[in-house]
Design brief:
737 residues, 3% strand, MetI-like fold, transmembrane, globular, transport, two-stranded antiparallel ribbon, MetI-like_sf, Iron ABC transporter permease
Length: 737
């Protein structure tokens, strides 16, 4: 593997363009436009020799270091030292020269004073630099493994190094760029007083609600997040139990209903709730006429946001919990019943404790999602202020106060990290492994009658409510003017997705086609990359022990804890100038989606992998397989529910994301959500809803394709649930237990 990546590095240095191409990252038009001698397309070796950019020549020197090992290989006495020096030195030099020299020469005045004026400039790094950086990273990780890191396992060291590098570049770096603004005063100087002024503002931490006034935005956000996390976790568990532990006839339909809210832009759910429960909503008017009372505005504020967020985020809990509930070993439940425990005691004392990783992760993800949610508070917030909208208005509103936005982002980060710490404390160091290498062919124990009634009474009404909400959405796509003229028409779909014919073939006449194809392409590229990074990270966190593991886990969750508005602005600040010029490209959208959605794959993978006994890994390694083969052939097949969850979630969130995307789209890469927002702002609600309905159908199709392609996890268990109708003896036993 070392020599392969070394060859990749030389290809990047000698053959490929060093700087970013104006045609875009994915095109090859540069091959026919002056390559390789034209300054914009020349590889690094020609840039350094012919075009007077001498600072690029040491890049080749660091790549030449490992060639000293060509004869002796691992037998060389300085094998590890040479690789570590070459890899680490190359990375430091590559990043350092990229930041030191920009479009107009030296990027800092002190560099110009030290070395004199520089007439030569450079743009953002491109193909060649990307391959060279990857080569340096693998060389460094190989050297660390040779020095004894991670017991000499190159796959593990390379995986850890890659994740750390990616998180540092695409999470810590952009967030650090915007958070430094928390200490910048009005005149642009660093000042602790600026931070204190914004942090101690009464509008942030005020407790006026206890005296009949208004609470600070921080307490509003925390209270809403706790309520949403509790409701979504309980609903997700109820749906998971109905699907896995009962004989409910319409399980497939119930699965679809739990997925629907997550594949819908959040502001659309808000608009549907307004049509139902707003002052002029159908339900509100019906109740008002029936009881003879004045229609109220209760939907706007905390109740409305909570209802919309519960609808939106329950699928996250379900996707996390379904694999965990399925993973509980039937043999343990059968052993409990053999010891004369009833179904209620078996569930409370055996099954539920083994579900704790899933419950904790579902709560954490819902809490963070609520904290970072932007669409629902924007549509239904009323006078109830939350951090995400306050950050947005601080950045783009009349305040134009980046310092206040940065301080509010720090407050939000404090809450999310506190939830993360509480989750780790609750789980502790207990083992939750229930899937081992032994055969486990039993059937899950069904729910006792009382719990079954509670689960049915929770999941089924919520499912019916979801059907009503989506009925309003689909109905709205077929009316002329939503809420005013309810005449049925297909004009909305024709305007968005009309198709015509010409002498040259099909003409995509609808106005939405361009953003539609762009959205599908970006989402299809980002989804598998998100799942790969997330599940690999989960494997490292659960199966490997290394220094800095807690900081490593924190880094993987950081992007999820920051509101999308902050992520969007931070990406603009970080990637708008050399050495990383990515704004306006499709690449920055893919990167944003990967690291915004990666934590779901991480948490879902951790929850599922916590149930896999380590003896599986040990058996594979004992039989001669290396860690990569063990991960690919043993672990991944048992993580199919987590893989499906990661792929589904990352794909649909890439399509429905709003807050971060609104800052990163461009004329060439316009996403569906930003296009829909434009339609809403122009009052074209029917076309906007029609577009959303098409996206919902596309995502449902994609979900079914993913589930069919990945398949189910095979644990040699029966898919049936043990008869849920208890005998008279069992009823009596449970009554006395």
């Amino acid at each position: 593997m070392l020599w392969f990546w070394l060859a990749v590095g030389w290809i990047g240095f000698v053959i490929l363009p060093w700087y970013q191409q104006e045609y875009g990252f994915w095109t090859l038009e540069w091959l026919f436009d002056g390559y390789p001698t034209y300054v914009d397309y020349a590889p690094a070796i020609l840039q350094g020799t012919l075009l007077e950019k001498f600072w690029l020549l040491p890049v080749g020197l660091f790549l030449a270091g490992p060639l000293l090992l060509a004869r002796q290989g691992r037998g060389h006495p300085k094998y590890a030292q040479i690789l570590i020096i070459s890899g680490l030195g190359g990375l430091i030099w590559l990043v350092g020269q990229g930041f030191a020299i920009g479009i107009s020469g030296w990027s800092a005045g002190w560099l110009e004073a030290l070395f004199g004026p520089l007439d030569v400039h450079q743009y953002g790094l491109g193909y060649g630099a990307l391959l060279v950086a990857a080569s340096y990273l693998v060389i460094l990780c190989t050297g660390l493994a040779a020095a004894g890191a991670m017991r000499g396992d190159v796959f593990v060291t390379s995986a850890i190094g890659t994740v750390i590098a990616l998180v540092a570049l695409f999470v810590f770096f952009p967030v650090a760029r915007i958070l430094t603004g928390a200490f910048v005063d009005y005149d642009g100087t660093l000042s602790g007083a600026a931070f204190a002024r914004n942090f101690l503002d009464g509008s942030v931490w005020g407790l006026g609600c206890f005296a009949g006034g208004v609470c600070g935005v921080a307490w509003n956000t925390a209270f809403l997040a706790i309520m949403t996390a509790i409701s979504t976790t309980l609903l997700g568990l109820a749906f998971a139990l109905v699907v896995t532990r009962t004989g409910f006839r319409y399980k497939k339909s119930l699965r679809v209903l739990t997925i629907l809210p997550i594949i819908t832009p959040p502001f659309v759910i808000g608009l549907a709730l307004i049509l139902l429960f707003g002052r002029s909503g159908a339900v509100t008017q019906f109740v008002s006429d029936l009881l003879g009372v004045e229609a109220g505005r209760w939907l706007y504020g905390l109740p409305g946001i909570w209802l919309a967020q519960t609808l939106s985020f329950t699928p996250i809990s379900f996707l996390v919990l379904i694999g965990v509930v399925e993973g509980v070993s039937p043999s343990m439940e059968e052993a409990s019943q053999t010891l004369r425990a009833g179904r209620w005691k078996t569930f409370m004392l055996v099954s539920l404790p083994l579900m704790r990783p899933g419950l904790a992760n579902a709560f954490l993800l819902s809490f963070i999602e609520s904290m970072a949610d932007f669409g629902n508070p924007m549509v239904l917030g009323g006078n109830y202020e939350v951090l995400s909208t306050e950050i947005f208005f601080a950045i783009v509103g009349a305040q134009n106060d980046a310092g206040r936005a940065a301080v509010l982002a720090l407050v939000l980060l404090f809450f999310t990290l506190s939830a993360f710490a509480a989750q780790r404390f609750w789980l502790g160091r207990k083992s939750y492994a229930t899937v081992s290498g032994k055969a486990d062919s039993g059937a899950h124990v069904g729910l006792n009658p009382g719990l079954r009634r509670v689960v049915y009474g929770t999941a089924i009404p919520w499912g019916i409510f979801t059907v009503v909400v989506y009925g309003m959405i689909f109905y709205g796509s077929f009316v002329k003017r939503w809420g005013f003229d309810n005449t049925l028409t297909l004009d909305n779909y024709v305007d968005a997705f009309g198709i015509g014919w010409s002498d040259h073939g099909i003409v995509w006449a609808g106005a939405a086609w361009d953003s539609f194809w762009t959205t599908l392409n970006i989402s299809a590229i980002s989804a598998p990359l998100t799942a790969a990074v997330g599940l690999t990270t989960a494997y490292l966190l659960v199966r490997q022990n290394f220094r800095g593991k807690s900081a490593f886990e924190f880094g993987t969750m950081l992007s999820f804890a920051i509101p999308g508005t902050v992520i969007g602005v931070s990406y603009i600040l970080a990637f708008n100038v050399p050495p990383f010029e990515l704004t306006g490209t499709g690449v920055i959208l893919v990167i944003c989606f990967i690291f915004r959605n990666m934590p779901v794959g991480v948490r879902g993978g951790i929850a599922a992998m916590s149930q896999l006994d380590r003896s599986l890994d040990e058996a594979s390694l004992t039989l001669g397989a290396n860690s990569f083969t063990t991960f690919r052939r043993v672990i991944l097949p048992l993580l199919r529910p987590a893989i499906v969850a990661a792929l589904v979630y990352s794909f649909v969130r890439a399509i429905t994301s709003v807050s971060a995307v609104i800052f990163l789209v461009s004329a060439d890469h316009n996403m569906a959500t930003s296009y829909i927002i434009g339609l809403v702002e122009n009052g074209r609600y029917g076309v906007a809803i029609a577009y959303c309905c098409v996206l919902i159908l596309v995502m449902l199709t994609a979900i079914m394709v993913v589930q069919g392609a990945i398949g189910k996890r095979r644990l040699r268990r029966e898919d049936r649930v043990e008869n849920t109708r208890p005998t008279g003896t069992e009823n009596l036993k449970e009554k006395h237990s």
